[in-house]
């Protein structure tokens, strides 16, 4: 395996020789034994191509996160990703005990949502969900793949291998290593946003880093025709007394139109391409972003409730993100037949913004106390 990783360009000959020499020093006959799963999980990080996330007691979880991200990840990526300034942020006033991990990735702030029942153990699930924030991105094809075990047991370490799809595929085909997500089409993040941080433009540019080209085309087309499309929708479908002013009260008026036209969720869903529904989706979304920090987005995937429908994302980092799908809200109106459903969508976006603001204040308090 060491020779093959050298041939794949994952490891230098010098590094491979040093690791093998270390194994031989520990137990020389081990080099002639067949690899078992325990060997793979134990030795791959030693080659510098993987990081191991400890599953047992780490004593002080914040210090461990700092070590893992600042030392291990930075070294594994060869400096392509440099992590600094790791801080565990807790909202002491939150009855749910909200926790976030904040760090700088190549100087840019990153937030992770984490949960800890004890300060002795890492939130391995949170790392698994968010590890790809540490992919080098740009022209570097390598991403972190979680190495899967045949049988998962409590308190085992998780191992993430940094490899290109071709390298990971070769290790799977030739050595039977099982990588999570290897067959998924993963868009590598593009360049960092250039807009002013915290603005709508910044969040939209950040979204585009992870969007496929078809998704970008779909979103651009949706946004470019917004004004004319809404004017045409209003003239064609709305009564003259409809309060077309993007207020929350106007969403109540729109609900009456929806209730009149559709009997249930499926009726709206089946009419997703109907001009009335398309216009209603536009109006709901434009109203929401006038009342809470949010922006339009689009996912180019068919295997998600958020796939291939225009949606509204909160203007927050991913750890705080709220997503509202106007089409689904219209369907909910028809299904539940209750007023207030559309205007309540604002609350999710505002709550996300409030949680982010609270976390920023907590981070600032930590900084001042250091």
Summarize the topology.
Blueprint: H1 2-7, H2 13-27, H3 37-43, E1 50-53, H4 61-76, E2 83-90, E3 99-105, E4 108-114, H5 124-130, E5 143-147, E6 158-163, H6 165-175, H7 200-208, H8 213-224, H9 226-237, H10 248-261, H11 265-270, H12 275-291, E7 294-297, E8 311-314, E9 323-324, H13 326-336, H14 341-369
Bin the strand percentage.
5-15%
Radius of gyration: 25 Å
Chain oligomer state: single chain
**Percentage of residues in helical conformation:** 40-55%
Task: Record keyword descriptors for this entry.
single chain, 370 residues, alpha+beta, 2 domains, 3-stranded antiparallel β-sheet, 14 helices, elongated
Characterization of this structure:
The protein is α+β, with helices and mostly antiparallel strands. The protein folds into two domains: 174 residues, no CATH class; 170 residues, no CATH class. Helices cover 46% and strands 13% of the residues. The protein contains 14 helices and nine strands. The strands form three sheets. The protein has a three-stranded antiparallel β-sheet. A three-stranded antiparallel β-sheet has the order 2-3-4, sandwiched between helices. It has a three-stranded antiparallel β-sheet with strand order 7-8-9, with helices on both faces. β2 and β3 form a beta hairpin. α12 runs parallel beside α14. It is elongated, with a radius of gyration of 25 Å. The model has no long low-confidence stretch (mean pLDDT 93). This is DUF3806 domain-containing protein.
């Amino acid at each position: 395996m060491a020779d093959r990783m050298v041939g794949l360009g994952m490891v230098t000959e010098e590094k491979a020789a040093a690791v093998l020499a270390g194994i031989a020093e520990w137990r020389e006959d081990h080099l002639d034994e067949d690899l078992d799963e325990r060997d793979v999980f134990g030795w791959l990080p030693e080659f510098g191509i993987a990081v191991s996330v400890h599953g047992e007691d780490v004593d002080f979880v914040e210090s461990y996160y700092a070590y893992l991200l600042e030392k291990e990840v930075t070294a594994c990526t060869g400096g392509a990703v440099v992590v600094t300034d790791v801080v565990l942020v807790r909202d002491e006033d939150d009855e749910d005990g909200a926790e976030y991990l904040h760090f700088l990735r190549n100087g840019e702030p990153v937030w992770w949502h984490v949960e800890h029942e004890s300060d002795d153990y890492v939130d391995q699930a949170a790392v698994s969900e968010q590890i790809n924030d540490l992919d080098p991105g740009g022209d570097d094809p390598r991403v972190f793949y979680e190495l899967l075990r045949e049988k998962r047991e409590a308190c085992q370490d998780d191992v993430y291998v940094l490899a290109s799809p071709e390298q990971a595929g070769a290790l799977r085909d030739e050595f039977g290593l099982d990588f999570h997500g290897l067959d998924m089409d993963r868009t590598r993040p593009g360049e960092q946003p250039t807009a002013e941080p915290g603005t709508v433009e910044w969040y939209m540019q950040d979204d585009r880093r992870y969007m496929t080209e078809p998704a970008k085309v779909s979103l651009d087309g949706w946004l470019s025709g917004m004004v004319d499309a809404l004017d045409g929708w209003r003239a064609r479908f709305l009564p003259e007394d409809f309060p077309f002013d993007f207020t929350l009260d106007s969403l109540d008026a729109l609900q009456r139109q929806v209730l009149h036209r559709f009997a249930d969720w499926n009726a709206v869903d089946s009419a997703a391409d109907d001009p009335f529904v398309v216009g209603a989706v536009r109006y709901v979304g434009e109203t929401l972003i006038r009342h809470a920090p949010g922006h339009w987005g689009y996912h180019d995937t068919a295997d998600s409730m958020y796939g291939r429908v225009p949606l509204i994302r909160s203007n927050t980092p991913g750890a705080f993100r709220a997503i509202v799908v106007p089409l689904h809200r219209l369907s909910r109106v028809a299904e539940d037949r209750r007023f207030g459903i559309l205007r309540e969508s604002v609350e999710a976006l505002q709550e996300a913004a409030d949680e982010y603001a609270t976390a920023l204040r907590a981070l600032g308090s930590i900084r001042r106390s250091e």
